[in-house]
Amino acid sequence: MPVIRSTEAEVHHVPDASFRSYAHPDRGSAELCAWRVEVSARSTGLPHRISQEEVFLLLAGNPEAVVDGERIALAPGDVLVAPAGAHLQLDNPGDEPATAWVTTRVGLRAELADGTWISPPWVAAS
Known about the structure:
The protein is an all-beta fold. Helix content is 0%, strand content 48%. It contains no helices and twelve strands. The chain has a six-stranded antiparallel β-sheet with strand order 1-2-3-10-5-8, with no helix packed on it. The two termini are 19 Å apart.
């Protein structure tokens, strides 16, 4: 059984967030991807539409998710299930970073507001 050590996580940065990628096809996971996201304090997330379901387990902070126009306050221990096709945004209006563990299937894609589709490297298929 593969073990990915915390020191082996691949780190990806975008404005106001970092993604520590653990499970994906290059690490031995054929079906699932999992990563830890940290969202900067006092930040507004990038709105996007997801191609498949994502599950977020909030570890720290008090971010707000916007799912299909509904704003949802989150607290540590909460789990957000964003369905496939949902418009999603993760904001962090608080004074501390927010951290979540996220899981989805391999190959998730996201459509940006301008219609551009992206395939984040932490969920890309090999």
